[in-house]
Amino acid sequence: MTGVTSRVTLAVTLAALAFSAPAALSQSEPRFYVTHVASTLVDDGLATAAPAGAEAAAFETVPAPGVQLRPDEARATSTPWIDSNVWRFQRGTQKVHYASLPEGAAPLAAAEAFVFGVNAVLDPDPADVEELRQMLRFLAAEDRPRLPAMANIGVVDHPSPLFSEVLNLLSRRNLLYRVVPAPDPALDLTVRLGTEDFPLEAAADPSAFAARVRTRLGDDKRLVRLYGGASTVIAHLTGERARARLYLLNYGRTRGPRGAGNPQAIRVRVLGRYQPTRFTGYRAAPQAMLTDIEHPEGATTEFWVPDFATLAIIDLDPMK
Q1: R_g over Cα of the chain
Q2: CB 190: neighbour CB atoms within 10 A?
């Protein structure tokens, strides 16, 4: 068997493993509710009035998504820190209340909930109502049947207060995982706090812990890798054997191109041989398309992503 054939076989095998243990799917699409501040969105049929009483109590209050710039002592600069609720969704949260969203956060909150199929109450800043209207229209146009989430890392649930930050860092590093009650032999790697490979004390430094998980998995087995200006982007890969869909959530501000005629700032590598069939991005140019599509050594798929704001969705068909 040649080296190229071997790598292709490996990629197909890994993709099969990722598909073999899909996460449970909700039977309904995400539903948006809004407070009285955005009542015109209810009139437009884009959302429902926020629930009250016992129904409202079923929604977990979560913080606004976004990015903070934190000092980087090693570089004497500031680095972006993503505030996301992805780890909550991965742990099973299905109903959330984004309370008192600061200006600029509501469209991202809607996109975050949409990508992970979560029902969400949105309490936007009045200045965001029109932009939220545009985002909800975009999401309504992209409302399609849900595909199973793809992952090849199983993280065994643990009561430690350190566990949530471990999940948060795995999400931020785009290490695609699934929270499981027990080890799943169908997945490539099991992360279990308190074991020799993943001692509990190591979780005290979530960033180093995520690096440990990445090393144990190996970069050649990562389902999605992002390059370039992707420090504020979280990827979510879904699919089944006949198709896949990749979501890119940008928690930072709207990106611009690196320059006329130059490749865009985000390059994506997906494990497996795919043919991208569709790209759509919020506030992307009307004729925007993926560029420089390659299949390095036949085992992966790479492409540059055109400019978009907040959310991009890419459909992928497996190639034989």
Answers
A1: 20
A2: 18
For residues 298 and 315, what is the distance between their CA atoms, to the nearest angstrom?
A: 19
For the stretch 221-252, pLDDT in tens is 999 999 987 889 999 999 998 899 999 999 98
Q: Which of these CATH numbers, 3.90.700, 2.40.128, 2.30.30, 2.60.40, describes 3-24+223-318?
A: 2.60.40
- 68-119 per-position pLDDT tens digit: 876 654 444 456 789 999 999 999 999 999 999 999 999 999 999 999 999 9
Q: Which of 277, 269, 279, 275 is nearest to 303 (CA)?
A: 269
User: Which ranges of the chain would DSSP assign to H, the alpha helix?
Assistant: 3-20, 39-43, 53-57, 86-90, 106-115, 129-141, 163-172, 206-217
Q: Collect all residues with Cβ–Cβ distance below 8 Å to 5 and sequence separation of at least 6.
A: 298
The pair phi, psi for residue 241, each rounded to 5°, is: -60, -30
